[in-house]
Amino acid sequence: MNHSQHTLKTHKSYHVWYRRLMFPRFFCCAVAAILLVAQTPQPVPERLAARALGDTPIFDDLKELCDGVGGRPTGSPAAQKAVEWAAAKFRAMGLAPSVEPFRIPKLWLPISAEAAAIAPAQFPIRLAAAPFSASTPGAIEAPLVDAGEGTAADFSALGSRARGAIALVHSGEMKTFDDLFAEYLRNGSLAAAAEKAGAAALFLESTRPRGLLYRHPIGLDGSIVPVPTAIVGREHAERLARLAAKGDVRVRVNLRNKTGGEYESQNVVAEIRGREKPGEIVLIGAHLDSWDLGTGAEDNGVNVALVLDLARAFKQLGIAPRRTVRFAPFTGEEQGMWGSRRYVERHRAELDNFAAAMTFDTGSGRLLGFYLNGREDLRAPVNDALRPVSSFAAGDHLIDAIDGTDNFDFLLSGVPNLVGIQDPIPYLPDYHAESDTFDRVNQREEKITGAIAAALLWGFADSPQRLPRQTRAQVEKLLSDTKLDEQMKAFGQWDDWKSGRRGIFQ
Ligand SMILES: [Zn+2]
């Protein structure tokens, strides 16, 4: 994903511009609109967009979720609180949400992480446990070895020195989505090489400078990697590496994680029934769960707040489109998109009747367009739906197919699906990090995204036509055309698709 062609303005300059220019302009528009409404009713997408841009409780909701509930890894008490919070929000709007339980195969939650250099110098080491890695057997003391990039060749070059040692693996700085994907893609071989070499623990250098820590899952298929693994503050990792180049380094580390077998989580889903074709469905979703070091504002509380505010808009304005619209805060996303996967399984019998599923999961950066997820036939209906908000210029759609958020099981099931494409700022630097907090959110852009999402949702829910569901053969071709098959193999998802455990069956 390369967004470098798009220019960015600072949050502050947007904010000032918004306050000075947009409010008076909205006010004039609002007055003009009221005068106009006396004769002609405003079309629904314009009404929804105007409401989204106006004064709504979207950021009050986000503050409650981020500051009041906080970081909420699936399986934690905070995640449970978030589920109850979302359900209560829907009820307060006058909707009757269904809280849909589902199972996730493996529990992983952090408890504590401590480390210190013992020799040749003593200093505390900043680190955070990597999700889906094992605990250390209490506090361990071991020599630290520099394992370079952590490839199989790097580990075999260390020979027997790696056995029982803490292996430090270097990382480049993460600046783009490509860098982030590369960080994920090396996980499998990294974990396997460290295990084979008999490392006592794995220290991964943080990809973000200035001590910033974040959760980086070392396992992606739900199983627990046996080598205890942590992200280590970038400057501490570099210091350890310099010391190790000179002589022996000893480190003490204690990583305590809670692991367990299958457990339950819930999705929260509310709907506005269609006035003409209630059996046909358009879904808008965002994941309610987050990692815990920060408070999950950009990833992805802000888009949960957007989904809730959109539901509130439909209810308050008393509008019902031709089809049923569903508003879906999913959980289990960070553990491997379990909420949306289980939603698709649970609603299998309805999938022929899904007109579209749309998700947002890259924070509050400027919305540039939509990933069409391999379906060129989505371009025209998306553009039709966006016409009432064309002044916001969110028309840079990409045919790319996305595997990494809650659209994925809809894609595998042949349901037309869309993912918002957004500027990587402010999302990327704070990804899964301590710094993903409410104050990072670009409120002006999020309001505009809300207006665009409203028009898109309405367009798909009210259009006389809809796109058909794809067959298994069509999805198979899509996976190969978009090279998603290669990513699925790297992420350990391919066997489930091939065997029919995941996705459309015929
Ligand atoms: Zn996310």
Notable features of this structure?
single chain, 506 residues, alpha/beta, 16 helices, disordered N terminus, binds zinc ion
Relative strand content: 15-25%
| Coarse morphology | elongated
Provide mean pLDDT, rounded: 92
Structural class: alpha/beta
Total of DSSP H or I helical runs spanning 4+ residues = 16
Q: Which segments are poorly predicted (pLDDT under 50) over 5 or more consecutive residues?
A: 1-27
Radius of gyration: 24 Å
> Largest sheet, order of strands side by side?
3-2-9-5-6-7-8-4
Number of strands: 15
Summarize the main sheet.
8 strands, mixed
Query: For the terminal residues, how far apart are their CA atoms?
Result: 31 Å
- Associated small molecules: zinc ion
Helix content bin = 25-40%
Quaternary class: single chain
How would you sum up this structure in a few lines?
This protein is α/β, with parallel strands linked by helices. Helices cover 38% and strands 20% of the residues.
Task: Please write out the topology.
Blueprint: H1 11-37, H2 44-53, H3 58-69, H4 77-92, E1 98-104, E2 107-119, E3 123-124, E4 127-129, E5 140-146, H5 152-158, E6 166-169, H6 177-185, H7 187-197, E7 201-205, E8 229-232, H8 234-246, E9 250-260, E10 263-272, E11 277-287, H9 297-317, E12 323-330, H10 338-346, E13 354-359, E14 367-371, H11 379-386, H12 408-412, E15 417-422, H13 443-462, H14 472-481, H15 484-490, H16 494-498
Helix pairs in contact: 2-9, 2-13, 3-9, 9-13, 11-13
Residues 287, 299-300, 333, 361 line the site of zinc ion.
